[in-house]
Amino acid sequence: MKYPTFSISLAIWKLLTDSQGTNGQSTTRGSYVPVTNVHCPDVFTRRTLDQQFQLDPREREYIDGRRALLPEAWSQWLRDPSTLGYSAQDLKLVSGADVPSIALASSGGSFRSALFSAGALTAFDIRNDTAKAIGTGGLLQVSQYHSGLSGGSWIATSLAINDLPVPRDLVLGNVHQGGNLTGWLLDRDLLLPDGIRAIDFYEDIVDQVRSKANAGFDTGLTDIWSRALAYHLLPGTSELNFFSDDESTHGAGVLYSDLQKIPRFTQKQMPFPLIVVNARPPLFEDAPPGTNLPLESTVYEVTPFEFGSYDPHLAAFVDVKYLGTELNELKPKSSDSCVTNFDQADFVAGSSSSLFFALLYDSRRKLNGIEAKAADFLFKALNNLLKGISTRADDVGVVPNPFRGLGVGQYEDANSPSLELIDGGSNLEQLPLRPLLMKPRGVEVIVTLDGSSDNENDFPTLLGLIQTQRHEGVVAGVAQPLPLLPSEEIAVRDQLNLRPTFFGCDPSSVPEWPLVISLPNAPPADGSLPVTNTDTFKLTYTDRHSELFLDQAFGTATSGFVPGQLGADPEWAQCLQCAVVDRQRFKHQPIIPRSQQCQRCFSRYCYDPANPPRAEDLKVVGRQFKFTDPDPQKGFFERNKKTIIIVASVVGVVLLLGILTCIFCFIKRRARAKIDQVTYSRLRGDVPLPKVVGLKA
């Protein structure tokens, strides 16, 4: 990690003193700029109410095509179903039409969540030799959906846009192994990449955003945030060109609709990505950052094909390629008034995490070791950057409202010209489950990768899962319910947040809910010191910390737990397999009994709040909870304190000298003016000449 303190101070001083960049003119390439006056296709919107909540035909085609490929993936993962106590015929895995529908859900939580998901997904990737040998490797390949919000949207977007590489390689890079991935470059701070060239970094970003504003679109801090994210999550940036003015656009112009062209997507060889965002209702415009949205607020989803919501009070979608087009009752102003190039992939991920960025304004919080004094200094600089380019509220991603005129009296933004997109977890649903519960998708098993921070140690308490159940009434009729869940208090009491748990294990003859496999970020099962419970506002990780983080997350996903003991459960991989195939038993008449091996697993990992296991069967022991930094680095203010004091002192001396000079000049001018007035009066005879002592008349 690089810490040239003087050059960083110069960069910040530049931000504080120059808000117009290149004299207010944009010189950068315009790939972040939406394209206007595009001819509109005949059909690019839909109301799901009119179609009885059917999927977009393109999504249905994708899922059907992917299911046809999955029997081979299942065969590679399970290898011999008899080890689970079933035959291949019992599990109905030979036909794509019968394979179970599995979804992965990555929670919010900044880079902590993104890294936890990356480590866990590596443990589920059959291309990782260790995961394959353990038996967990393969779940990623048989999954049909992957949803994400806030920090979870970063891993979901980055994985998909980069053509689904091994998640560990995506984060750390594989150039030295002959690959083409440069990694997330987490050793460079997301907001203050080190070096005097940070000036170039921000000037380039501001120019891009200013170009969008000059094209007539509302912009703000979320656009700055989104562009900064692109340097880490999207293709095109490396250590060599991070600050250079070469031909790289650093992810600008990479569209979410471009996923339709990604090789593994076109071949239906990746889980279908879903990104969750919320919108701030008009009545909440003056609410302070961090205010939770009401239960009835619309939850939007972004897919490679469309943007919209299945929530009954809206139930409408627009082709994501034409997001940014002004519509009224789903109709454009004219046949040539459509907009393209608005669905920037970084803007989608940035909007899903935009409330997180607004919270950074609270200078009482720490940002990667930056104390309140330094944080205030930083945000004065960032505020200064917004002059001339911020046209709306700083903490939202502004989108021309494609649903204006719909659901008047029910849909909160029916009369709004724009949608103000904010963090996907701003309604406390920190897990992106709502799209996965929509009945048309028919998801049977959901694996939650929970990297949220709910307690003093920055570990989850399953609040995100529980909060989703509290919101079920909003989407009743169009969504599956979740299985019965415990309260947050009971989940913590029974230590369900410290190990994997299965919910909804024993439905009726027709499963009313999906089986939920909860995998929370938890202290290591071997009792070692945790490195994965980092602060949400930590925006830089050393290479060593990134590697250890991924290793611990990998361990969490491959360990399970042993009641009353430290260490991994040697049967966890089989138990995971038992869980994801369990719904297959219900596709037979009569229902096939659960195998002895799988029943042993379910006895350990299932939790029914109405009939909880014995306390001794739940006990997790020997865990360490306090975060331990494996590679301590000085915070920004601490490592630059001397330079900042010197710069501040020099500025103070210059200001003091200037003030003293002004005072001296003012006194001198007053004295001269007084002398001139007396001289003039004497010349007129108004004032007698003074007597000179010692002279005779």
Describe this structure in words.
This protein has helices at 5-17, 57-78, 88-91, 110-123, 129-134, 139-142, 151-161, 167-172, 198-214, 221-233, 263-266, 345-352, 354-359, 372-385, 434-437, 463-470, 488-493, 543-559, 572-581, 596-605, 636-639, 641-684, and strands at residues 35-38, 45-47, 102-106, 145-149, 272-279, 299-302, 306-309, 316-319, 327-328, 331-332, 338-340, 397-400, 418-422, 445-450, 501-503, 515-520. With 697 residues, it is of the alpha+beta class. The strands form three sheets. Strands 2, 3, 4, 5, 6, 7, 8, 12, 13, 14, 15 and 16 form a twelve-stranded mixed β-sheet that branches. A hairpin with a 6-residue loop joins strand 7 (306-309) and strand 8 (316-319). The protein is globular, with a radius of gyration of 30 Å. The termini are far apart. The model is unreliable at 1-9, 19-29, 363-371 and 689-697 (pLDDT under 50).
Describe the biggest sheet? Answer: 12 strands, mixed
Helix content: 25-40%
Overall 3D shape: globular
Uncertain spans: 1-9, 19-29, 363-371, 689-697
**Which structural class best describes the helix and strand composition?**
alpha+beta
- The average pLDDT score comes to 85
Quote the distance from N terminus to C terminus. 89 Å
- The number of E-state strands comes to 16
What Rg, in angstroms, do the CA atoms define? Answer: 30 Å
Number of helices: 22
What is the strand content?
5-15%
